[in-house]
UniProtKB/TrEMBL annotation:
The keyword Nucleotide-binding applies. Signal peptide: none annotated. The keyword Coiled coil applies. Residues 632-723 form the GED domain. Pfam families: Dynamin_M, Dynamin_N. This is Dynamin family protein. Residues 677-704 form a coiled coil. It comes from Sporothrix eucalyptigena. SMART domains: DYNc (SM00053). Keywords: Coiled coil, GTP-binding, Nucleotide-binding. Gene3D superfamilies: P-loop containing nucleotide triphosphate hydrolases. InterPro entries: Dynamin, Dynamin_GTPase, Dynamin_N, Dynamin_stalk, G_DYNAMIN_dom, GED_dom, P-loop_NTPase. Residues 42-319 form the Dynamin-type G domain.
Amino acid sequence: MGDTRECDIALDSAALDELNSPEAKALLDTIDSLRELQIDKIIDLPQIVVVGDQSSGKSSVLEAISRVRFPTKGDLCTRFATELVLRRDSKTKIGVTIIPAKSSRSSQHFHRTSFNKDALAEIISEATEKMGIRQTGFSQDILRVEISGPDIYPVTLIDLPGFFHSETSDQTSKDREITKQLAEHYMKQPKSIILAVVSANHNLAGQIVIQEALKHDPKRERTLGVITKPDLAGSQDEKKCFQLVRGEESKHKLKLGWHVLRNRPEGEENTSADDRDADEEKFFRTSAWPRFAPTSCGIRSLRKKLSRALLELIQKTLPGVIVQIERNLSTRQHDLDQLGKPRSELADLRAYLLEIAERFQRLAFDGVDGHYGDEFFGDLYDDRETRKLRALLRRLNSAFYATLVTKGVGRKIEWEDDDRISSHDGGFSWIRDGDDVPEYLKTYLHLFDGFREPTIISESDLCEELEELAAANQGTEFPGLPNGKLGFQLFKMQAQPWRGIADFYLDKVTDFAESFVEELFTHIIGADERTVNAILQFCVVEFFEDKRKVLKDKLQEILRPYVSAYGSTLDAEFYATLSSRTLEREAGRIASLLEEKFPAAFTEKGGKGLTRENVELAIRNAENARAGEFGTDKVIDMTMTHFQISLRTFAQNVMNLAVENCLISDLPAILTPSMVVRMSEERLKELASESKDAQVERQRLQYEVNMLRAGLEKCQRSRQHERKDKISASQSLPERLILDPSWVVAVEDVSVTVVYR
């Protein structure tokens, strides 16, 4: 802000005092104290925004209200937003700043040590030069003039460029858009009183400001209409103005009503403010306009009307201001709590890290066990699934096993009697029935899309291939018996994809677990980025680098029986599975041959014509049909039986012995309280020392928390005071008011105003 030394300020305090009232004083002091606490930088506070079409007399209205000179000549028309911010303060201060529209540019500060009623025009002229717009063009930059002093009435007045229809060499379509954007920025704020200025000597329907005000205040609750230049109005325009002020124009009826001002005519810009007010009073006494009540004409009654409107707006919005303050206070207090207490001593560092370790260990166990009660895990519908670790692992495990079942085989055998010999589906009904993948599993199954589908070989082609291999590798087995070693070689060929799929699965599990841990530490530590990064670097990264090596070694250990040694199965399970498979195969063959040789047995009721000799013949034919010199059909049955059992065992071992035992169960041990207790001074400083940025952030947050608490207390006291006033006012009003119907009675809190119409 500008010069903070004692400054020379000369303003018309009497005129500004007319914006005040005993009822408003306490509330306005509260609002001003909120601004003094800089709460207006966090929430919107009430202000008066003056809008209108070009040459409607906006700046003259502002000048009349504040008695501060605004440029009103055509060559100095308003080309940017000007904020005149008046504040009560124990010291007199002046601050003049150009706030750039783009954050990439820095603010420009003016050096001012004095301010009087004529200074604003000079400041605006200087700002116009600095913005580089001079005589033409408009700017989205904002000129803010802040005046503080012990006798200054607190109010914020906003002067905006006027709306215009036609484009000229000085006013382009881009300028028109800038004008609308600036007006929208201020008018849409629910705590802005819109002072909509219309000129009496122009058709009301043709003035843009009416529609713009309606757009941003559709209920017409915070718009006050001001009619200027009544001395220039023709008879038709004058009639329309009468209707507006009397509230007879339903389309443009405003809750705050309409008001008429007669500003300085052209050529009398240099007359004094007192002369201006005297001329206005004389005009309304001697022209057709006295037909209106004095409360609807003249600058003095407008100030009172604005004071009342501002008071009502503050009373109406104060509960919302309190809610905003409470919300901002809660957010900043949470951020402050996340930073923790200041830590300069070794004991502070250890205590801080102990708290982090305790929370981490507890929440890590919750994630591993699937207990999602803490806010970190979100609610039932939260889409941050990486935080719900156990649920994620279960879906990833299903996707891993489904991929092994569908893609974890060297070659997929196409059985000649597919109806009898069921393919291995791993228990997944959607694989067995050929249905779509369940929705909950799609994302995880897509992770394995990079693995190719197995090639297909028919059962007969595989038998021929095995017969050739068996002939080339015969041993001392009896003719017709299978070569066991041939079966193990076939098994190894079929199990080749296991390593790649399992290796990829372990990488994904590790990635997800690492993301879970990183998110958890970030959540626990909060805004202290230095400690977050230090723990991730010195604890988390090292932990997962080690675990990736451990998992690779464990996978090698689990794979060894299947690639370089004898991977045995339980004899009983193998025999039962093989017998079932053989029975399915033989039953299929017999049924097929019976249907071929004796079709009547399948078409005639009761199998008529089928004899014992026929069945024996069919069985002998079946044996002869598939009898082979090398027993390759049995090799295939034994190999696929061994493959099916081993696949399930392999998947379980990878999930349990590798993932659960070597990784997931150790996550809560990444940082434990016992580790912190034994931690060296050097490591403590590495992990828990506070950065300068964190110290600055804590100071900022603490300042804002204190500021918001003070503001909240002021608002709550003002609200309680307001309630008491309303109670006492309602108690002091007479039970009945009996008045002549020709009088209009208005009851306002504690006073009764009677106006004769």
